[in-house]
Amino acid sequence: MLLLLGAGLVFFILVFSPFVIELRKPKDKGPRRMLKTPLEWRIRRSHKRPFTVKLSSADNSKVVKDLVNVLKEAGVKAARVSKDTVRIFDEVAFSSHLEISDNIVAERALTLGDHCVFFGSVKAKGNVHVGNGVVIQGNLVSEGDIVLSDEVVIGGSVHSEGSVRIGENVFIALAIVAIGDVELHERSEVTKNIITRGVIKVRKHPRIDLPPTIDEID
């Protein structure tokens, strides 16, 4: 009798177990969104357009606004790390004619608009592009490339782990230290040394020979 019961139990398991397993399988919910890998996320983020920081026309120039608040109003992630230093976590572009009293430490690329004045130093982990007529009273440091447009004044040194390109009528009060090449205009001035592992290129102003008399003009 026990033998018959055991044989029946084995028969039941063999016949119905595939059906039970199929019922317990999770149902297919259709295609799922694949999570981005960290590398893909970084690549996509690196191509995001930078935030632009500017003051509205309604702002009173005599009123001193905290830079962190201005950045947050522009949608930029930033934090004050000391009394006179602000860390910026997003890629940012400062509009023209701004006066910034704080030291700037940027975690990404940085663009300084024309005729801005920075009373401290500027440091960025990405590339730095400095517009025309910008004044930086401290040092300019970048882990990428640095481009200085025309008539820029740097009160300290310029340090780049990439290359440095300098426009016309630029004045650097101290030295340039770069890993890559340094290219500067002959009408620019670097008071101290230029130290680089690359080459130094000097761009000369094109010479235009004017006719001595108006009669020689065709």
Question: Could you explain the architecture of this structure?
Answer:
This protein is of the alpha/beta class and 218 residues long. It has one domain (41-203). 18% of the residues lie in helices and 30% in strands. The protein has an 8-stranded parallel sheet, with no helix packed on it. Strands 2-3-6-9-12-15-18-21 form an 8-stranded mixed sheet, covered by helices on one side. The chain has a 6-stranded parallel sheet with strand order 5-8-11-14-17-20, with no helix packed on it. A hairpin with a 2-residue loop joins strand 2 (78-82) and strand 3. The protein is globular, with a radius of gyration of 31 Å. Residues 28-48 and 56-63 have low confidence and may be disordered.
SSE diagram, text form:
Elements: H1 2-24, H2 38-46, E1 51-53, H3 67-73, E2 78-82, E3 85-88, E4 92-94, E5 99-100, E6 103-106, E7 110-112, E8 117-118, E9 122-124, E10 128-130, E11 135-136, E12 140-142, E13 146-148, E14 153-154, E15 158-160, E16 164-166, E17 171-172, E18 176-178, E19 182-185, E20 189-190, E21 194-196, E22 200-203
Parallel strand pairs: 1-4, 3-6, 4-7, 5-8, 6-9, 7-10, 8-11, 9-12, 10-13, 11-14, 12-15, 13-16, 14-17, 15-18, 16-19, 17-20, 18-21, 19-22
Antiparallel strand pairs: 2-3
